[in-house]
Design a protein that fits this description.
By secondary structure, this protein is of the alpha+beta class. It contains ten helices and 14 strands.
């Protein structure tokens, strides 16, 4: 455990900002981890955070435990085995990587070192970009589980023999992000547009009609279940109020911006709904299917990055259904 946490901090890759919440740096991490016995490790930190948050931070993938000896055997040029681990496993979970083809397939095999042995010897995860193709593989019996389908597809599958649709709570939040530094559309940097946008979303219709209850309305940063999460939903579709806010701020009718999103459910459905509701306030949205230039919002207030997009629909890991074929 000491090696794994120290390795993650010293490697200093993008996800390390999570462990950075402890105040850990490559310079102080070794002094923050102490072996008490073969089964007990003492962890200290510099930041003013409580033990509940600390435990949540340690549950992130960046804090995963790897085999010190095995990883060290495959390190190159001081990379702590990072390049080798892109296609191999060095953990103690139920499965290990047998073969990985990026964006195509991941073949997992039962890990003989796991404390709990799984009943299925091999699991094949296939990357199938098209949601309709994923549904077809399921109904034809070529796949046992599928996820990330559209609301209409899930609704139809609920009545398909031999198929079970399961919904479960998640901390995943979908949000609309604006690139406030965009030089082509300065209105995106005006707080009045952000405020008006909150009143130009038909939340109830999106959640219950368009997405058929697949998602719930949540209007604050932290997901439900996290300390400090707000469950109130003060905003609703109010075009008149939005127009008043825009007019007072001098944002002219006909203001246009482009919304980028990946071509996967539920993004396309939400984008079309936003086009329609924003148009009621004479704010026009163009759409761009762009899987690269969409915004990412890192956890715990790390700045927003929009990669060139004016606005984006994105997600931050509150229900994602999964479809399972009954065997």
């Amino acid at each position: 455990m000491i090696y794994s946490l120290s390795r993650a901090v010293k490697l200093n890759k993008a996800p390390v900002f999570i462990l950075g919440e402890f105040g850990w740096t490559p310079e102080n991490i070794d002094a923050s981890l102490h072996k008490i016995s073969d089964t007990v490790v003492e962890i200290t930190w510099q930041s003013d955070i409580g033990q509940d948050l600390a435990l949540r931070l340690l549950s992130a993938p960046i804090a995963s435990i790897v085999d010190h000896k095995l990883v060290s055997e495959h390190q190159q040029a001081g990379d702590y085995g990072n390049n080798w681990l892109k296609n191999h496993s060095a953990g103690s979970a139920a499965y290990s990587i047998q073969r990985y083809v990026p964006q195509q397939a991941l073949l997992l095999e039962k890990n003989p070192h796991s404390a709990i042995q799984p009943k299925i010897a091999h699991v094949l995860l296939k990357g199938v970009p098209d949601a309709s193709a994923r549904r077809l593989l399921l109904t034809q019996g070529d796949a046992d589980i599928a996820y990330g389908l559209g609301a209409d597809q899930f609704a139809a599958l609920r009545h398909t023999a031999g198929v079970k649709v399961a919904s479960f709570p998640s901390s995943l939040i979908y949000y609309l992000a604006f690139n406030t530094q965009d030089s082509q559309q300065p209105a995106l940097g005006n707080p009045a547009l952000w405020q008006a946008a909150r009143w130009l979303v038909n939340y109830g219709s999106l959640s219950q009609q368009l997405l058929k209850g697949q998602y719930q309305v949540h209007q604050s940063f932290l997901p439900i279940g996290f300390d400090g999460a707000l469950e109130k939903t003060p905003f609703s579709l109010d075009v008149a109020k939005a127009k008043q806010i825009l007019s007072k701020a001098g944002i002219k009718p006909g203001t246009t911006f482009t919304l980028s999103f990946t071509n996967q459910p539920p993004y396309s459905d939400i984008a079309q709904a936003l086009q329609a509701s924003f148009a009621q306030a004479d704010i026009h949205i163009g759409v761009s299917l762009d899987i690269e230039n969409y915004c990412t919002l890192r956890w715990f207030f790390v700045p927003l990055s929009c990669g060139g997009a004016q606005a984006a629909l994105s997600e931050e890991q509150t229900y994602r259904p999964m479809v399972q074929k009954t065997i």
